[in-house]
Amino acid sequence: MRHLLTGLRYLLATLSALVLLLTLVSVVPSTKWWVQVLGFPRFQALVVLAVCLLGWLALSWPAHRRVRWGLLLGCGLGLVVQASFLWPYLPFAPKAVPAAPATATTRLRILVINVLMTNRQDARLRQLVTDTRPDVLLALEPDDWWARALRPLQPSYPYRVELPRSDAYGMILYSRLPLAHTQVQNLLQHGVPSIRTRLRLPDGRQVTFLGIHPTPPVPDTYPDGVGLRGAALEKVTNLVRESERPAIVAGDFNDVSWSGTIQQLTHAGELHDVSRGRGLFNTFDARSHLARWPLDHFFVSTPFQVVELKRLADVGSDHFPLYIELALPD
Predict the structure, then answer these.
(1) Backbone angles phi, psi at 150, to 5 degrees
(2) How is domain 107-327 classified at the architecture level of CATH?
(3) Given the DSSP bridges, would you call strands 107-114 and 136-140 parallel, antiparallel or unpaired?
(4) In the predicted model, what is the mean pLDDT of the chain?
């Protein structure tokens, strides 16, 4: 028993040191990809810190009073730091976008899904679209195979922008609503497209829609984009400002809600994160129960209101679909 307690204490000490180091480095302002990635598992780090804190209280170790209080204080401060990033997204925090009244009549339903290029469970996705009947479907990462797999949906979606690619940066937009002034733009790098268009609502009003899929904060197909996503999102903010219409920005952002890069979208006040005050909506990784965080997002401008925001069932991808129903007051 004595050896078991000793081993447990050393394990707890190792975990405490690692998670406190992760917490410390994750708050350092940096464009280094490995620093930005340390900000992803904040909820997981918070859970580990809570376990360590309870462990030190239960074990009453180390015997040296100052060392013990130092460990307790360190774990407590780490908990506060991690919780401060997560708090704005909990359901009881203030909502950045107000809830729509039940009487709202002008509504817009949007479904975003990163299909995973190698995923071949297309029937599940088509069935999900049939069941949820979104007005707009934004599919990310489609190649030519996925472009063909989505074609049975076309009778219900007469307005389309199809940009299949074999490098995981393809994009397909299906819409029941007429599109206008549609543009395909490379906001930061050639070969990483985004879609900018206007949706004409049934009452005749037009809203700006931007579908984006920035490069991730780790070196991949486009390693020169590491640390430059902030420049792309700044361009998005400028486009929203120039449109002078209610705007929606949606997609797989390859970044978590609480990152400084993502929050650039809301700093100027034109856009608001619909998930603030509603939940974490961890859309990635659908194949893991432990390593999950929110990478897919919706941002809207005033005066949009939220009727419903929810993560939908797994469709075989490494991302869960994200669905929103918005209301636009008269």
Answers:
(1) -85, -10
(2) 4-Layer Sandwich (3.60)
(3) parallel
(4) 89
